[in-house]
Amino acid sequence: MKVHFLFVASVFLLAGMLSFRFITDHQNNRVVPDNRSFISCAPPASLDLRPDASGKYAPVFPGWGTYSYPVHTSSDSARLFFNQGLNMYYSYHLTEALASFKEAARHDASCTMAYWGQALSMGPYYNSYVYKMPAAVLPVLAQMNRAAANSTEKEKDLVNAINKRYSTDTTDSKRSELNRAYAVALAALVKKYPGDADIKALYVDAVMLEHSWDFWNNDGTPKAWTMELVNDCDEILKAHPEHPAALHYQIHLVEASLHPEKALHNADVLKAAMPGVSHMVHMASHMYQRNGLYAKGVDVNQAAGALQTEYDVMAPNLKLGVFSLTHFNAVGSFCAMNANMYKKGGEMAGQLHHILATDYKARLSNTFFQYLYMLPMFTAIRSGKWEAVNAMPEPDADLHYALLLDHFGKGLASIKLHDTAAAGQQLQALKGLLKDSSLPVRNLPFNAALGSAKIAAAILEGELFAAQGRMDAARQSLKKAVVYEDELIYREPKDWPIPARHFLGAHLLKMKQASGAENVYRQDLALNPGNGWSLLGLYQSLMMQHKTTAARKYQPAFKRAFAHADELPPASVY
């Protein structure tokens, strides 16, 4: 990378400024998932891969860049498909990766690395919190080990390393020990081959798999393993500025930090280097939304959706489907609502709502997917479209968390439309649902819905108190909402999409407590850099204190943040 930051020092400098939670104990409230429970960001490799009518497992996909790794084979086609598979693995396109490695083996059945790649693709990966080894990996390992006799020394070393990732125990009872053994083996290879960027990238990947989404403490300081991985990515990128794995992994490593700008450059490079790979194009939005560039986040998620559809059409035998579109639309609508792009946000949230209501209705038993299902309502709340909120149909009776969020939105709408009696009824209904048994169950490795439900209750209570003229009680409720929000583990999109500090800051301004509002908005900008809502609130709080010179510094910033908005909002909340 051309730009390096004083990252470690600045992390610790800001760590004492705020007390908030990105990570908590992963052992609490465990659920019983399927063998490869995965996060919506990217699904695991399909194990039911069949060739097309011509016998091919994968076509040559467009737009995966030019990065390559030398492998021992006499077949140019095997080499091409190996490199396609490796780039797809680095991109979390695991079905395309597995199919590409199988296609490489079809062109050269003696290519050890074609089987190594298949074993790699069938293993644990970052967005699979709970993994159980599929039995189908065992014959692949056998083929790999037979072919390894004629491989290079380095390839034999990689084979030995990945063998440590698996055992013949089909119950996979020692998964954590196997993951550790694999990482240790790769660490030894990093020392043996210090100039091999891919071995180092595989090591970073292996350690990330041991600590998925767990890189930062509650106070914003890094976990013990984090900075080694960040620095490894820096070293790779210094030698190979467009290395797809290092660009991708470093985004995940720093997105939950107090300094997401560390990997903002990665976003621009990644989407240019791999313009046809939907997840890599989408990954740019992880950095755009963490750096206040929300309109750019909308654009790349729209592009990612089109690219995923293109791959699905190109390779119908892979049955890629539209599940990834749920994540692209979720993040895209989150970005749009933060940019106050109501029309675009409503469009993307509506597409997501439709996909979940039709193709993936069974997933609505999960509270996180109920939250995604309700994003059209949050989009309307964010932009103050209160009549639209009230007009939204009530969710099905068995979607208890969705019902709770419906009560939140319609309660707020009732307040804004001057019907406090109706708002009180919505608040009571919401509080009744707080006892629902589904809410304390964590969506591992992230939050239980109860955390966000408590935020909703506290915000609605605070807004109702304010409408009733009980201003001090309102402030206390909104402060509780901030505390609850700060306890949430970071995920993307965030489990609570409208920061509680935006409500608290606006309330303090109404109470003419401009200094307190200024502090609230500065805290929010440390957590959500560049967001226009807090930049606007900060400007208003400074103007109220007659700090005109200081305020004028922020006026261009919030106008830039809302440059693509349907309208400039009047405050940090409507």
Automatic annotation (TrEMBL):
Gene3D superfamilies: Tetratricopeptide repeat domain
Superkingdom of origin organism: Bacteria
InterPro entries tied to this protein: TPR-like_helical_dom_sf
PANTHER family tied to this protein: TPR DOMAIN-CONTAINING PROTEIN, WW DOMAIN-CONTAINING PROTEIN
Identification of the protein by name: Tetratricopeptide repeat-containing protein
